[in-house]
């Protein structure tokens, strides 16, 4: 029995030494126990976070790492996570406005693609046109008006250089829609029914290239610094053009409308312009040409001839907005002017009788 007790006493120091060695491996001081709770809490904190850089995630991807994961200091992984996520954020921040406007225009694009597949070409044109008009007049006007009231300033400022570039792109989009309409209504086509469609498809490809160049400029600069409409029209006795141009875009742009007003109230007018003007540019320079190209692939005669009334409405809207943006300032009066202009446009589409009331365009010969 004495021999057994002496053996057990000899074993106790060895166990203590083993714990001492394990504590050294884990980076703990065996003399002080106040560090243990903090390390445990850090361990739990890291485990609760969903990250791409954790020992478990790395061990699942790198074979044989599991036997070393327990001996690596968690602070190393914390530093790796900060560096990794910071690099990801630096990549994604310039895409913020693009993603915002892209998802904000998802409703119009989905409706347009569906209507295009069903041959409702006028619904596609009017829905996209209404999105541009509502963003330029209603959304931007509300942002200017709300920002001027909330900030208590006589003037709010924004980037004049960005406003000039945006106005130029909008005018380019108007030119792309105006020339096919002029070609149609002057009856000066070289081949009737074919020249207009060919010009629209060529212009759409050019507009897509221009939009891609605009995105590259914006991203590098930031790094440096349908049938339901026709049924509703019959049930409510409201013109289809009014539903497509006024009602649908207001509902679809409600999220972007709220964001633009919120940022304007916080005196961040450049972001509000990025939401309102950026969405209009995306629809005019990407959405419309994309639908023309998609119609080309589907065998649908989708073109850039939006008819004279719609093209004139877009032209006057872009001219008014470009004139108000040229000085790089905004106030309540400018916002009220844009909002009243939107009421005029909405009333004009309410009394407008669309020549293709069923939402269809005659087939091209």
UniProtKB/TrEMBL annotation:
<feature type="transmembrane region" description="Helical">
    <location>
        <begin position="238"/>
        <end position="265"/>
    </location>
</feature>
<keyword id="KW-0813">Transport</keyword>
<dbReference type="GO" id="GO:0006874">
    <property type="term" value="P:intracellular calcium ion homeostasis"/>
</dbReference>
<feature type="domain" description="Sodium/calcium exchanger membrane region">
    <location>
        <begin position="233"/>
        <end position="349"/>
    </location>
</feature>
<keyword id="KW-0812">Transmembrane</keyword>
<feature type="transmembrane region" description="Helical">
    <location>
        <begin position="271"/>
        <end position="297"/>
    </location>
</feature>
<dbReference type="GO" id="GO:0015369">
    <property type="term" value="F:calcium:proton antiporter activity"/>
</dbReference>
<feature type="transmembrane region" description="Helical">
    <location>
        <begin position="304"/>
        <end position="324"/>
    </location>
</feature>
<feature type="transmembrane region" description="Helical">
    <location>
        <begin position="197"/>
        <end position="217"/>
    </location>
</feature>
<feature type="compositionally biased region" description="Basic and acidic residues">
    <location>
        <begin position="1"/>
        <end position="10"/>
    </location>
</feature>
<feature type="transmembrane region" description="Helical">
    <location>
        <begin position="128"/>
        <end position="151"/>
    </location>
</feature>
<dbReference type="InterPro" id="IPR044880">
    <property type="entry name" value="NCX_ion-bd_dom_sf"/>
</dbReference>
<feature type="compositionally biased region" description="Polar residues">
    <location>
        <begin position="29"/>
        <end position="38"/>
    </location>
</feature>
<dbReference type="GO" id="GO:0012505">
    <property type="term" value="C:endomembrane system"/>
</dbReference>
<keyword id="KW-0406">Ion transport</keyword>
<feature type="domain" description="Sodium/calcium exchanger membrane region">
    <location>
        <begin position="94"/>
        <end position="219"/>
    </location>
</feature>
<keyword id="KW-0472">Membrane</keyword>
<dbReference type="GO" id="GO:0009705">
    <property type="term" value="C:plant-type vacuole membrane"/>
</dbReference>
<feature type="transmembrane region" description="Helical">
    <location>
        <begin position="163"/>
        <end position="185"/>
    </location>
</feature>
<dbReference type="InterPro" id="IPR004837">
    <property type="entry name" value="NaCa_Exmemb"/>
</dbReference>
<keyword id="KW-1133">Transmembrane helix</keyword>
<feature type="region of interest" description="Disordered">
    <location>
        <begin position="1"/>
        <end position="46"/>
    </location>
</feature>
<keyword id="KW-0050">Antiport</keyword>
<dbReference type="Pfam" id="PF01699">
    <property type="entry name" value="Na_Ca_ex"/>
</dbReference>
<protein>
    <recommendedName>
        <fullName>Sodium/calcium exchanger membrane region domain-containing protein</fullName>
    </recommendedName>
</protein>
<feature type="transmembrane region" description="Helical">
    <location>
        <begin position="336"/>
        <end position="353"/>
    </location>
</feature>
<dbReference type="InterPro" id="IPR004713">
    <property type="entry name" value="CaH_exchang"/>
</dbReference>
């Amino acid at each position: 029995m004495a021999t057994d007790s002496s053996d057990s006493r000899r074993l106790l120091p060895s166990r203590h030494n083993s714990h001492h060695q394990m504590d050294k491996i884990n980076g703990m001081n065996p003399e002080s126990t106040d560090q243990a709770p903090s390390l445990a809490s850090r361990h739990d904190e890291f485990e609760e976070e969903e990250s791409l850089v954790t020992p478990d995630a790395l061990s699942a991807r790198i074979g044989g790492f599991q036997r070393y994961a327990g001996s690596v200091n968690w602070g190393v992984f914390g530093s790796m996570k900060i560096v990794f996520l910071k690099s990801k954020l630096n990549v994604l921040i310039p895409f913020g406005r693009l993603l915002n406007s892209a998802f904000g225009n998802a409703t119009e694009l989905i409706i347009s693609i569906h209507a295009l597949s069903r041959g409702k070409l006028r619904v596609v044109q009017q829905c996209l046109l209404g999105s541009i008009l509502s963003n330029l007049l209603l959304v931007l006007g509300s942002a200017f008006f709300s920002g001027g009231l909330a900030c208590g300033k006589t003037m709010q400022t924004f980037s004049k250089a960005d406003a000039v570039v945006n106005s130029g792109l909008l005018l380019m989009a108007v030119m792309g829609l105006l020339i096919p309409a002029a070609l149609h209504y002057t009856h000066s086509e070289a081949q009737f029914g074919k020249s207009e469609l060919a010009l629209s498809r060529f212009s759409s490809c050019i507009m897509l290239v221009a939009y891609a160049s605009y995105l590259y400029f914006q991203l590098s600069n930031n790094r440096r610094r349908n049938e339901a409409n026709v049924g509703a029209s019959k049930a409510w006795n409201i013109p289809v053009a009014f539903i497509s141009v006024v009602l649908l875009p207001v509902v679809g742009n409600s999220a972007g409308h709220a964001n633009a007003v919120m940022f304007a109230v916080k005196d961040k007018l450049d972001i509000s312009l990025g939401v309102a003007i950026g969405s209009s540019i995306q629809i005019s320079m990407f959405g419309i040409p994309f639908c023309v190209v998609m119609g080309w692939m589907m065998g649908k005669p989708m073109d850039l001839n939006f008819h004279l009334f719609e093209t004139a409405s877009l032209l006057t809207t872009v001219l008014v907005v470009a004139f108000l943006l040229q000085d790089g300032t905004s106030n309540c009066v400018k916002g009220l002017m844009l909002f009243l202009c939107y009421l005029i446009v909405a009333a004009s589409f309410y009394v407008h009788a669309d020549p293709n009331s069923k939402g269809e365009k005659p087939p091209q010969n």
